[in-house]
Automatic annotation (TrEMBL):
Domain Helicase ATP-binding, residue spans: 103-267
Region of interest: Disordered: 689-710
Keywords from the named record: ATP-binding, Helicase, Hydrolase, mRNA processing, mRNA splicing, Nucleotide-binding
EC numbers, comma separated: 3.6.4.13
GO molecular function, one term: RNA binding
Catalytic activity: ATP + H2O = ADP + phosphate + H(+)
Gene Ontology terms describing biological process: mRNA processing; RNA splicing
GO cellular component: catalytic step 2 spliceosome
Protein name per Swiss-Prot or TrEMBL: RNA helicase
Organism: Muraenolepis orangiensis (Patagonian moray cod)
Length: 710
C-alpha cells in the first residue's frame, strides 16, 4: 500500500529527520547555530514551492541481508597508515569471510558462477585471492573482463594500489588503443571486446590460468559471445578455470548455460533503502534532477548523492545547472561538489569521484549507468533515478541501428536504488511514479545481442573459423532475421574484395574510416560561440559530401603537425582527432599485415566516393518528394541539418548512419552516381530498382541542372 503524502507532510517528515541530525547535516559551525525556523525559511527561499518535487514514499523498503556493522572506512586517508588500512578495508569487504570457501570451490570446479551484491569485492578481491593462492605461478595470467572501459581502468588502478605495485606492471589493463600491461603482468583487467580480440592471436587462451567474465548480468554483445567461446575452449582446456561473476541477477540462467555449473553466493550486506516516487510524472527529468539534488542538499543529513543520467551531454548540462545554481546561492548553502562520470571523461577527472568528501561538504556524482554495478563509490546515501538509460536498438528490416533514450528496466532501477544502501541506510528518489515502475518498465534489460547489428560479430566469428553461426552456442540466440541480414551484407561485401578500386585510394579511405569511427564528436560547438563554431565548420566544406569534409579536416590537421592549437582555433575536438589518429594507425597496421598496399589519389574524389559506395551500398537513399527514401526498404529519411549537403539535396546519397531524434536523419552523407551501385554491387541491386523515376518524367537536362549551375 502506498502512502501518498502532501508536500507539507513530506516536508514535515524531512524536517523531523533534520532535527535529529541537524548537527551532522550542516557541517559549518555557523550553519549549525541557526535555528530550525530560520532553516525552514532558507529552504523555502532556495526552492520555491512550485518548483519542488513532490515525492511520495512507497511502503517498499528495499532490504538486504545485513550481516555486519559499518565503520570500515575510518582512517583510510592517513598516508602513514595507508598500507595497513588498505588491508583493513580488504578484510572488511563482504567477500572476505568467504575467501577460503571460494578458493576451495574454484579448486573443485572448472566453471563457477559467483553471485554477489555490487560492492562486495568480486572484481577487486577475487583476482587477488587467486594470485595469493598461486594461480599465477610460472607466469600464467588471470584475465578479468569488464563491459566498460572506465571500469577496467579504474578497477585496475585500485587493485594495483592494493597490491602495492605500479599500474601496468604486475597488474594492468587493456582497452582498445590503450595497452597498459607488460611482460610482468599477471593480472589483466580488460574490456570484454579486448578478450574477444585475443582469441584471434591465441585461440585457446593458453597463457591464462583463470578467466573471469565479470559483470555477466550486463549481457553486452561481447560478453555473450565470450560465453559461447569460453564454454567451448573449457572443454579441451581442463586446466583453465572459468569464473562468471554477476550482481544478484539471473545467475540461474548462467548456471544453466554452463552445464549446471554451481553458483557461489556471497551474502550481501545492504542497509535498508527507502524508496520515494514522484506523485506525477516529471516533464523535464533533467531539471527535476537538479531540483532534487538541491532539495536533498538543504534538507537531508550528511551523505553523498548519486544521480543517474543517460549520457555525456545530459551529464554536462546537469553539472552546469547545478554549479550555476550553487554559485547563485553562494554562502546560503554548504559546499556542494559536483562530479561527472562517463566513458569519455579524461581519466584524471574520473579518478576524482573516489576522493573522500571533505567534512561539511556534500558530493554529487552525476553518472551514466556505469555507476549502476561496475563502479562503487563509497559514501553514497542518496540516489536520484530518473528511470532512463541510453540503449542501442536495431531494426533488422530497415538495417537501422540507433541509440535511444528509453525507460530502464525494473532490475536496473533496483540496482540503482541499491547503491544508496551500501554504507548506511539510504534513500532513493525515483523521478517517476510508482505506477510507472509497476506498469511501464520492463522486468529486465533485453540482452544487447538481440538489438544490434551483427555485422562485426559475424566477421569476428568467421575470422576465428566459426562458420556455422546459426548453430553457435548463444545463451540467447539473436533474431534469425538479424543474423541472416548480417551474413547477406558481409557476403555482398566479400564479393567486392576483388575490386581494384578499394585498394587504390586506401590512404584517404583509411582516414575517412578512422574519422567516421570517432562518432560525430569532431566539431566542437560551445553554446556561447555557436556562430564562430559554425563559421569554422563551414570553412572545411568541400563538394561531394561529409566524408570528404572529414577527410579535409584530418588532412589539414596533419599539415598543422597534429597541432592542439590548430584544433582549438578551428573548433575541432583535439581528443577526437587524437583518437581518429589512433584508429587510423591501427587500420594501417592491419592493412600492412594483410599486405594491402596503401596508396593515394588526392586529386579526384570519385574513387573515394566509389569506395564508400562499395562498403555501404546497402545504405543508399534516393531523393523523393519532401525528403529521401531508402532504396531497399522505401523508408522516409532526411539529411541531417549539420550535413554539408543539407542545402544541396543531391539525387543519390550514401549515408553512414541513421539516427532518430525528431525525425529519421541520415548522418554523414556522400553524393554518389547511381550507376556505381550496379558496378560495385550487381548481386544486390537490380537495374530496375535504380531507375530514376523522376528523370523519366523530367527532361534529362533538368535532371542535371545542379551540375550545370555548379
Ligand atoms: O565487484 P564488486 O561490485 O563486488 O566490488 P568491487 O568493485 O570489488 O569493490 C570493492 C570495494 O572496492 C568497494 O568498497 C569500492 O568502493 C572499492 N573500490 C574503490 O575504492 N575504488 C575503485 N576504483 C574500485 C573499487
Ligand atoms: Mg564488480
Amino acid at each position: 500500500e502506498e502512502m501518498p503524502m502532501e508536500v507539507g507532510g513530506e516536508q514535515g517528515r524531512w524536517e523531523e529527520e533534520r532535527l535529529k541530525t541537524a548537527s551532522l547535516s550542516f557541517g559549518a559551525k555557523k550553519e549549525r547555530e541557526r535555528g530550525l525556523k530560520e532553516e525552514r525559511e532558507r529552504y523555502e527561499l532556495i526552492l520555491e514551492e512550485d518548483e519542488m518535487i513532490n515525492f511520495v514514499t512507497s511502503a517498499v523498503t528495499m532490504k538486504g541481508t545485513m550481516t555486519e556493522e559499518q565503520g570500515e572506512n575510518e582512517g583510510l586517508s592517513q598516508a602513514e597508515q595507508k598500507k595497513e588500512s588498505i588491508q583493513e578495508v580488504r578484510r572488511s569487504l563482504p567477500v572476505f569471510p568467504f575467501r577460503e570457501d571460494l578458493l576451495a570451490a574454484i579448486q573443485q570446479h572448472q566453471i563457477l558462477i559467483i553471485e554477489g551484491e555490487t560492492g562486495s569485492g568480486k572484481t577487486t578481491q577475487i583476482p587477488q585471492y587467486l594470485i595469493e593462492a598461486g594461480y599465477t605461478k610460472g607466469g600464467a595470467k588471470i584475465g578479468c573482463t569488464q563491459p566498460r572501459r572506465v571500469a577496467a581502468m579504474s578497477v585496475a588502478a585500485r587493485v594495483a594500489e592494493e597490491v602495492g605495485v605500479k599500474l601496468g606492471n604486475e597488474v594492468g589493463y587493456s582497452i582498445r588503443f590503450e595497452d597498459c600491461t607488460s611482460e610482468r603482468t599477471i593480472l589483466k583487467y580488460m574490456t570484454d571486446g579486448m578478450l574477444l580480440r585475443e582469441f584471434l592471436t591465441e585461440p585457446d587462451l593458453a597463457t591464462y590460468s583463470v578467466v573471469i567474465i565479470d559483470e555477466a548480468h550486463e549481457r553486452t554483445l561481447h560478453t555473450d559471445i565470450l560465453f559461447g567461446l569460453i564454454k567451448d575452449i573449457a572443454r579441451f582446456r581442463s586446466d583453465l578455470k572459468v569464473l562468471v561473476a554477476s550482481a544478484t541477477l539471473d545467475t540461474e540462467r548462467f548456471s544453466c548455460f554452463f552445464d549446471d555449473a554451481p553458483v557461489f553466493r556471497i551474502p550481501g550486506r545492504r542497509f535498508p533503502v527507502d524508496i520515494f516516487y514522484t506523485k506525477a510524472p516529471e516533464a523535464d527529468y533533467l531539471e527535476a534532477c537538479v531540483v532534487s539534488v538541491l532539495q536533498i542538499h538543504v534538507t537531508q543529513p550528511t551523505g553523498d548523492v548519486l544521480v543517474f543520467l543517460t549520457g555525456q551531454e545530459e551529464i554536462e548540462a546537469c553539472c552546469e545547472l547545478l554549479q550555476e545554481r550553487c554559485r547563485r546561492l553562494g554562502s546560503k548553502i554548504s559546499e556542494l561538489l559536483v562530479l561527472p562520470i562517463y566513458a569519455n571523461l579524461p581519466s584524471d577527472m574520473q579518478a576524482k569521484i573516489f576522493n573522500p568528501t571533505p567534512p561539511g561538504a556534500r558530493k554529487v556524482v552525476v553518472a551514466t549507468n556505469i555507476a549502476e554495478t561496475s563502479l562503487t563509490i563509497d559514501g553514497i546515501i542518496y540516489v536520484i533515478d530518473p528511470g532512463f538509460c541510453k540503449q542501442k536498438s536495431y531494426n533488422a528490416r530497415t538495417g537501422m541501428e540507433s541509440l535511444i533514450v528509453t525507460p530502464c528496466s525494473r532490475a536496473s532501477a533496483n540496482q540503482r536504488a541499491g547503491r544508496a544502501g551500501r554504507v548506511a541506510a539510504g534513500k532513493c528518489f525515483r523521478l517517476y511514479t510508482a505506477w510507472a515502475f509497476k506498469h511501464e518498465m520492463e522486468e529486465s534489460t533485453v540482452p544487447e545481442i538481440q538489438r544490434t547489428n551483427l555485422g562485426n560479430v559475424v566477421l569476428l566469428l568467421k575470422s576465428l573459423g566459426i562458420n556455422d553461426l546459426i548453430h553457435f552456442d548463444f545463451m540467447d540466440p539473436p533474431p534469425h532475421e538479424t543474423l541472416v541480414l548480417a551474413l547477406e551484407q558481409l557476403y555482398a561485401l566479400g564479393a567486392l574484395n576483388h575490386l581494384g578500386e578499394l585498394t587504390k585510394c586506401s590512404e584517404e579511405v583509411l582516414t575517412i574510416a578512422a574519422m567516421l569511427s570517432v562518432n560525430n564528436s569532431i566539431f566542437y560547438r560551445p553554446k556561447d560561440k555557436v556562430v564562430h563554431a559554425d563559421n569554422a565548420r563551414m570553412n572545411f566544406v568541400v563538394p561531394g559530401g561529409d566524408h570528404l569534409v572529414l577527410l579535409n579536416v584530418y588532412t589539414q590537421w596533419v599539415e598543422s603537425g597534429y597541432s592542439t592549437q590548430w584544433c582549438y582555433e578551428n573548433f575541432i575536438q583535439f581528443r577526437s582527432m587524437k583518437r581518429a589518429r589512433d584508429v587510423r594507425d591501427q587500420l594501417e597496421g592491419l592493412m600492412e599485415r594483410i599486405e594491402v598496399e596503401v596508396v593515394s589519389s588526392p586529386e579526384d574524389s570519385t574513387p573515394i566516393r566509389k569506395a564508400v559506395t562499395a562498403g555501404y551500398f546497402y545504405h543508399t537513399a534516393r531523393l523523393s518528394k519532401g525528403g529521401y527514401k531508402t532504396v531497399k526498404h522505401q523508408q522516409t529519411v532526411y539529411v541531417h541539418p549539420n550535413s554539408s549537403l543539407f542545402d544541396e539535396q543531391p539525387r543519390w546519397l550514401i549515408y553512414h548512419e541513421l539516427v532518430f531524434t525528431t525525425k529519421e536523419f541520415m548522418r554523414q552523407v556522400i553524393e554518389i552516381d547511381s550507376s556505381w551501385l550496379l558496378e560495385v554491387a550487381p548481386h544486390y541491386y537490380k537495374n530496375k530498382e535504380l531507375e530514376d523515376s523522376s528523370s523519366k518524367k523530367m527532361p534529362r537536362k533538368q535532371g542535371k541542372s545542379k551540375e550545370e549551375l555548379g
